[in-house]
Amino acid sequence: MLTLTDHINLGVVWTLDMLAICLNLLLIGVIVLRTPVQLRTYSVFLLNNAIIDLTTAISSALASTRIIINHETQTSLFVFLGPCTLFSEHLCRLCQALLVNLVTQSSIVLLISFLYRLYIIDVAATSRSPLSSSRIWLFCSISFLLITPLTYGYYLEETDVSQEVLNRFDLHGYTVSNYNIFSTRSLVVNSVVCVISPIVFMAIFVVRRMLIARISQAVS
């Protein structure tokens, strides 16, 4: 049975997630139906990020995870409060894995979009043919494949919880998974994410500075 704290948690999470779902559905509709022909190619990036954000919000709403730190075993307990518990514990684990790793995916697509803008300036200067929408979809798909092993590794690390742990934290009746943050697989997954994210954001900063410089040069 859900406690008062659980209900408050669900209320906050679902308010934010439903708002995000509605806004991203609206954004996807605007991108698909109202994008001018001249911007159709670039809109692929906007559409990809909107889909990623929508998937993240849906995953968050389905899982509605409460996290408990088990200091004795140095593990995290994911207590799932959302509607994923009505279907399968494996769905809850997948939602949690997607929620964690799609943030990295979104930043990678953002970096590719900045690189594309830089590329377009070079195309305009050299009269080369710009990339087609299908190629941009291909690049975005490849970036998604890069985080798939991380998501799968995170999912596999979510394991069953012992009866002893359920008794200790009074979690009977809840759907709970155990995440060992110090296992080899978990250390690899988290290390890769911790390395990729700063590199991607630093690259975005550098490319953005280059883009601003190119635009200023073109205007002057």
Automatic annotation (TrEMBL):
InterPro entries: 7TM_GPCR_serpentine_rcpt_Srd, GPCR_Rhodpsn_7TM, Nematode_rcpt-like_delta
Matching Gene3D superfamilies: Rhodopsin 7-helix transmembrane proteins
A Pfam family matched in the record: 7TM_GPCR_Srd
Main location: membrane
Keyword Lyase: no
G-protein coupled receptors family 1 profile domain ranges (all copies): 23-220
Membrane topology, as annotated: Multi-pass membrane protein
A Gene Ontology cellular-component term: membrane
Subcellular location: Membrane
Protein's UniProt keywords contain Transmembrane helix: yes
Family designation: Belongs to the nematode receptor-like protein srd family.
Protein's recorded name: G-protein coupled receptors family 1 profile domain-containing protein
Organism of derivation: Pristionchus entomophagus
